[in-house]
Amino acid sequence: MIVLANDGISPSGKQKLEAAGFKVVTDHVPQEKLADYINNNDVVALCVRSATTARKELIDACPNLKFIGRGGVGMDNIDVEYARDKGITVANTPASSSQSVAELVMAHLFSLARFTYDANREMPTNGHSDFKALKKKYAKGIELRGKTLGIVGFGRIGQAVAQYALGCGMHVICADIYDVYTKVSFVIHGHGEVVVDVEKVELDELIRRSDAISIHVPKQADGSSVIDSKEIAKMKKGVLLVNAARGGVIDEPALLSALSSGHVAGAALDVFENEPTPSEGVLSHDKLALSPHIGAATLEAQDRIGEELADLIMAEMTT
Ligand code: NAD
Fold first, then answer.
1. Is position 18 annotated as part of the catalytic site?
2. Tell me, what's the ipTM?
3. What percent of the chain has pLDDT over 70?
4. Of the residues 216, 225, 231, 302, which should be mutated to test ligand 1's pocket, given the most ligand atoms within 8 Å of the CB?
5. I need a labelling partner for 4 at 20 to 30 A (CA). Which of 97, 136, 281, 316 fits?
6. CA distance linking residue 96 with residue 303, whole number of Å
7. How far is CA 202 from the centre of its chain?
């Protein structure tokens, strides 16, 4: 049985499938040739990440496909219900990348607080710029300790971010549309478990109280943003924003204009309204720290994702 991992799979996931007798193909087949490839090669399972899409047309064109696996969380690139109605099992690996995304969020927060994303680019080369002037330019950093971090969307990743932020001495508040579990527990090696009940507030209150805001909601069903110009106007002047969820959940034009006015001091984006070609305005703004949708791109997360996908495929094909 052939598994097409069109956006790749970790070596450990591939090995697991091969040990169970599957042939794993990791060639990236272009989207327009995917249906023909699946049919001509008797592919039974298609694994994707965020690049490959599995829409109605592909599902209709591939009647022998049994399984679509999404390595990671967001399934907005798959017509999930349509595929399930056609008898295809659709599954993702939701928990496997939470820690990695949370660590990227903290990396961005630290970088925004001390301008390292920008200072690095401007360091003098062969004496072509003034070290002292740069030292002055980046002299107004802030500490994260003691600041209030507002986490919008308190699911797996939101809670993982809370663990790290609490460990840094930040005060953490959260907002969620559901009555979510707010007790965050983590183990300090050698010192046992710490449990913190994070304060849950309405979005409006979170927006007004936070020194930094990180958003961890899925792409909204109607494509709308959760934070737009109205919300940004209510934020503290000098707030820091991070979006490692989905492009557009913070409205990009509103963010750019608030960065330019100075209302938002700095922001970090791992996801974009136009992926993979973010707008020039986003790419060139000197108060934006950017990363190319790499939240889950750690060796550890990729191993967990690959192995979990392998387990899901093996369970599906052997029952
Ligand atoms: P999750 O389902 O565990 O948590 C999402 C939370 O958001 C839920 O508690 C939900 O109730 C809440 N929510 C939804 N809409 C909301 C709204 N309008 N206002 C407030 N809360 C709202 O999901 P997760 O595993 O924490 O992942 C969150 C998102 O992160 C994913 O959907 C995905 O888009 C994104 N993600 C990004 C990367 C990356 O590489 N940057 C990797 C993995 C996931």
1. no
2. 0.99
3. 98
4. 216
5. 97
6. 9
7. 23
- Ligand 1 pocket, CB under 6 A: 72-74, 94, 97-98, 101, 152-158, 175-178, 180, 216-219, 226, 244-246, 270-271, 293, 295-296
Q: How confident is the model at residue 122 (pLDDT cuts 50, 70, 90)?
A: confident
CA distance 307 to 315: 12
Q: How far is the CA of 99 from the centre of ligand 1 (A)?
A: 13
Q: What is the pTM of this model?
A: 0.91
* Residue 81 among the catalytic residues: no
Average pLDDT over residues 13-40: 97
- Amino acid (1-letter code) at residue 318: T
Q: Catalytic site residue 191?
A: no
Q: Among residues 70, 108, 216, 246, which one is catalytic? A: 246
